[in-house]
Design a protein that fits this description.
156 residues, mainly alpha, 71% helix, 0% strand, elongated
């Protein structure tokens, strides 16, 4: 087997698990020590091995970026357009997320039932309703002398 075939076997791997492990590293522009050792053995020089690995990572990354990452981004942009997600909405979401993550429903529109959105009680409305309920229970307790159960607040 000649040098280019050996390098191809080392860099591209035939075993599925090893291939996936190497690709995960390559996507992050990393490599394993064993790969460096194998390439060094084939190239018979550490500097040549380093150049080959750097060259391979650059080619791998540019192909990954051009063929997969750009496609992924295009698909995400189309999905965001279908769901009415704009840059302004993303910025609002970040502001709301910092304030309180429970104030805003982040689920996408495709997977939501419109009736479910309408039936959800806003946090402010719930607080107001519970305060009125507590006020009426306290008033009833003062006027009649009988204390109502407070367990109803637990599940409201």
């Amino acid at each position: 087997m000649n040098t280019s075939q050996r390098l191809k076997a080392i860099l591209l791997e035939t075993n599925t698990k090893d291939k996936l492990d190497k690709r995960k590293l390559l996507i992050r522009s990393l490599t394993s020590i064993s790969l460096i050792a194998e390439v060094k053995e084939v190239m018979e020089s550490g500097s040549k091995a380093s150049k080959v690995i750097c060259w391979f990572i650059e080619i791998f990354w540019s192909n990954f970026f051009e063929k997969l990452w750009k496609f992924h981004c295009e698909m995400m942009i189309e999905w965001e357009k279908r769901n009415g997600i704009t840059c302004g909405l993303k910025k609002k979401r970040l502001k709301w997320k910092r304030k309180s993550s429970s104030d805003y429903n982040y689920a996408n529109k495709e997977n939501q039932d419109s009736q479910e959105i309408v039936n959800k009680e806003k946090k402010k409305d719930k607080v107001f309703r519970l305060q009125k309920l507590a006020e009426s229970k306290v008033s009833n307790w003062i006027e009649t002398g009988t204390k109502d159960s407070w367990f109803s607040f637990k599940n409201n």
